[in-house]
Amino acid sequence: MNCQVCKNPINTTGFYQELKERLEKAGICHSCDIWLAHWKQRNDDNVLRISGNHYIIVKDGTGLELTVRRNGKLQTVSAWHQGLIPEVFRNALPDNAQYARRIGVA
Ligand SMILES: [Zn+2]
After folding, report:
1. DSSP string covering 81-101, please?
2. How many helices (H) does the chain have, and how many strands (E)?
3. Is the pTM of this model over 0.90?
4. What is the pLDDT of residues 37-83, one digit of tens each?
5. 32 alpha carbon to ligand 1 midpoint, in Å?
6. Distance from residue 99's CA to the centre of ligand 1 (Å)
7. Are 53 and 81 in contact (CB under 8 A)?
């Protein structure tokens, strides 16, 4: 069976039963399942998409420190990086911020 979203084969080998059944029923691969979940949160304030990369801002300081420009404002945040958004999701998950130089760094 191939994924309905990205057309790659769906490989559920080694997945726990509940996940395996859910993916097979939906006809999507694990990667697309994850990116669909990000798509559902696409308008959340804690989501940053920069140059095709996906980040979720965390409040506990455990993430990567990033200085970004969003809606014309600079902000420094702590964010987890989910990786590069797959090509098939790029149009659905457009950039909503830009990288900015760290304040104080030439
Ligand atoms: Zn897929």
Report:
1. EEEEPPGGGTTTS----EE-P
2. 2, 5
3. no
4. 999 999 999 999 999 999 999 999 999 999 999 999 999 999 999 99
5. 4
6. 28
7. yes
